[in-house]
Amino acid sequence: MQTRLKYHYGKVFPEAGCDEAGRGCLAGPVVAAAVILPDQAPGDLLRVLNDSKKLSVQTRLELRLLIEEQALAFGVAMVDNVEIDRINILNASIKAMHLAIRQLIPQPGFLLIDGNRFKAYGDIPHQCIVKGDGRYASVAAASILAKTWRDAYMQVQHEKYPDYGWNYNKGYPTPAHKLGMRQQGITPLHRRSFKPVCQLEMAF
Description:
single chain, alpha/beta, five-stranded mixed β-sheet, 8 helices
């Protein structure tokens, strides 16, 4: 796991890793995070940083605290399901990343983006890296913040809509979630542009 790309065009600068969570969900927002780690990130953080999907819930929560305490800067932003339906999930994911980057003080000089699609943020150069959350510490940190913040949001929404299993599936298309949709219909948090939701809405 690398802490950062130290040079770009011969210059050293703060670098932010960016990632999102919730692109494949049928309900709820997409959440993105941007993180600038110290040049010499603490060993206890680097040893366990990884793609959030490969970590246990407890480890992710513990790392969230470490990241928020030890990062030079971090930002977390969400784009809700209504906006996802309006501009599509890819554009919503990129918009959430832009909103997260905007929160960073100082602003970074370079962006590492998990995945293969991004739209330039101002004049800050960027690099897209498939599976970057398994290669770069700042991207892994961003994936953990995005995942834990979104999970916490969906846990709260589960209290309002308890018939869909969001307390454990977080809005992903599990059998329990789909069963809840068939039995109870769709909620104001469902993404109506997503095929399983659209088809069910037309059937009701």
